[in-house]
Amino acid sequence: MNLFVANGLGVRIDDVSILNDVSLSVKAGEWVSIVGPNGAGKTTLLSVMAGLRPASGSLSIQGRNLSDLTPRERARLLAYVPQHPEIPPGMTVNSYVLLGRTPHLSFLAMEGSRDFRLVEQVLKQFDLSSMGQRTLESLSGGELQRCHLARAIAQATPLVFLDEPTTALDLGHQQQALNRIRLLREEHKVTVVVTMHDLTLASQYSDRIILMSKGQIAAEGKPAEVLDPTRLSELYGAQVKVLKVDGHLVVVPSVSKENS
Amino acid sequence: MPVKELVAEDAGPRPVVGVTEKLRVRGLVIGFVAVALATSAGLLIGPADIDRTNAVKELLDRLPFISVESGLTSIQKNIIWEVRLPRVALGALVGGTLALSGASYQAVFRNPLADPYLLGAAAGAGLGATVAIVTGSGDGVGTFDLVPLLAFVGALAAVALTYLLGYSSGTQRSPAALLLAGVAVASFLTAVQTFIQQQNVETIRQVYTWILGRLNTASWDEVSLLAPYAFVSAMLILVCRRILDVMRLGDFEASSLGIRPQLVRLVVICAASLGTAAAVSVSGLIAFVGIIVPHTVRLLVGASNRIVLPLSILFGAAFLVFVDLLGRTLASPAEIPIGVITAFCGAPFFVTVLRSSKRTLG
After folding, report:
1. Is A104 among the domain residues?
2. How many domains does chain A have?
3. How many CB atoms neighbour CB B13 within 10 A?
4. Is residue B1 part of a domain?
5. Minimal Cα–Cα distance from A75 to chain B, Å?
């Protein structure tokens, strides 16, 4: 069953088309990765899908029109982590993750022990329990990334949108972050939509890949269907090879002798 | 949602994520002690020669079920009840209101340099007061003193104008547009005020005294004029204190968490401006309180608005009562304008606090 459906999404800025008639659907429990070259419209698409950016077209989640929902109702259904989340100075890890509970509290209410316990549980899952009192500024890139994910999970939504969650992480931390997302997805039955740059990682973790180019969907389907070397070479303007290593697809740049 | 299912309802130890609560309680206790100390000093110290033990007896005498003979003359009693007490009360109200307004502006604009006069409240109040003074309505003649009324109206009108300009300029409803509109409105109103002042040189001294800020004309009338506004303003802001912590993530992420940032900003700005307008209408322009107090509080207890906002009220109240005490005793029997003292002792105090370590209360 489709958890999320987008129909005919379009965004224009100063007569430049950033997104053009994008339609897609996401099934419950799926991991969908949106990939594409720089400027393809991945980030715009994700923020439009999260209802955070005005656009033409329609969006629905669990069969309800997104524009009919109040911001709070929407935030109880989908969590969104931007590419560069704000780091409020002096804010502790505890307070930051606790902000994820916001949509579950009425305007005047304060967090209750139930929220505190839930956040504690989430902190434990992200190995953040020992640094709850530390400020966000004192954390490393990998730890910070875990905080952002923890906040999204504390939001307890069926759908999580992550905008390039592995940017600025080294190879090990990229893998750890994606493994964690995979684990959480299985544990919490969360549906995940991620924008990514690394095609190899995208192919290894995703159920489905949406390849964007110039504000439109260029291809969509299982990783093996989408990651076609000729198509990638054309869209990215680069020579690439798609290899199969231990049953996994690996996308590598291929340097021809004339180019070297 | 699945995460909830993981959580046992009432099992486990007390959640550790609630520890900021401890900090808050400790800060509140210190804040109340500071207010009590400043208030006592304000009541017991002054240019009039009143024996302090007798003054304490006089204060105790007014408490229910306590009857002590203070031995004070009726004039001395009058000084305590009709001069010192309203002045302390007004100082506390103005200080608390300005500090809270400053902290709120800093929160909604996410700018540590925002102050209660940011959106033109000071310039508007200044213009209102100047108009009242030059037209002769502010000399206490007649039944009605127009200075506070016009200052109040001027401050609110200026903020409203800033808001309208800021939000009508372009499609980007950003806080930056509002700040720029504030600068424009303040400059324009100050120009008008200066022009009127230059045209009426005979009242320059009166206008200047008002602009420097003062509490020496304090009476119960001013206290009862300010109190309801201060109360409403504080209540509105304090109920938003948790949401203002969410706003620290910026408008975009706050929206993703289900907040309407522009609505919250509107509510808080209205409340803070109402408080500021009422405060300046009775005390003139007292600078620095709205910046120095919230900053000091933040350095002591961290940046969470849910702690900073209530503590700003307490520390703002204590600060202004204390500063007013300095103003009326340092050069006794003459008085130094309170606005001069807030700036004069505020700056070094601020530097000292900046140099001390963070979170000393924790």
Report:
1. yes
2. 1
3. 7
4. no
5. 5
Residue in chain B closest to A100 (alpha carbons) equals B257
Instruction: Search chain A and give the residue with CA nearest B4.
Output: A118
Tokens 């009709």 sit on residue = B82
pLDDT of residue B170: 57
**Which residues span the domain enclosing A226?**
2-253
Distance CA(B169)–CA(B268), nearest Å, equals 21
A153: helix, strand or coil = helix
Which residue type does B60 have? Answer: L
By C-alpha distance, the chain B residue nearest A84 is B253
DSSP output for A183-251: HHHHHHT-EEEEE-S-HHHHHHH-SEEEEEETTEEEEEESHHHH--HHHHHHHHTS-EEEEEETTEEEE
Overall domain count for chain B: 1
Per residue in B329-340, pLDDT (tens digit) is 888 778 888 888
- Write out chain A's pLDDT in tens, 260 residues: 789 999 999 999 888 899 999 999 999 999 999 999 998 999 999 999 999 999 999 999 999 999 999 999 999 999 999 999 999 988 999 999 999 999 999 888 888 888 999 999 999 988 899 998 899 999 998 899 999 999 999 999 999 999 999 887 888 888 888 998 898 888 888 999 999 999 999 999 999 999 999 999 999 999 999 998 899 988 888 888 888 888 888 998 887 665 54
Using a CB-CB cut-off of 8 Å, the residues of chain A touching B256 are: 50, 52, 75, 79-80, 82
Q: pLDDT category, B163, cuts 50, 70, 90?
A: confident
Question: Which CATH number belongs to the domain containing residue A49 in this structure?
Answer: 3.40.50.300
B interface test, pick of A14, A78, A80, A99 with most B CB neighbours within 10 Å: A99
Query: Are the C-beta atoms of B285 and B125 separated by less than 8 Å?
Result: yes
With CB atoms and an 8 Å threshold, state whether B304 touches A95. Answer: yes
User: Which domain CATH number covers B73?
Assistant: 1.10.3470.10
pLDDT band at B25 (very low <50, low <70, confident <90, very high): confident
CB contacts of A50 in chain B (<8 Å) are: 256
CA dihedral over A215, A220, A223, A227, signed as positive or negative = negative
Q: Which amino acid is at B33?
A: V
Domain containing B281 equals: 20-355
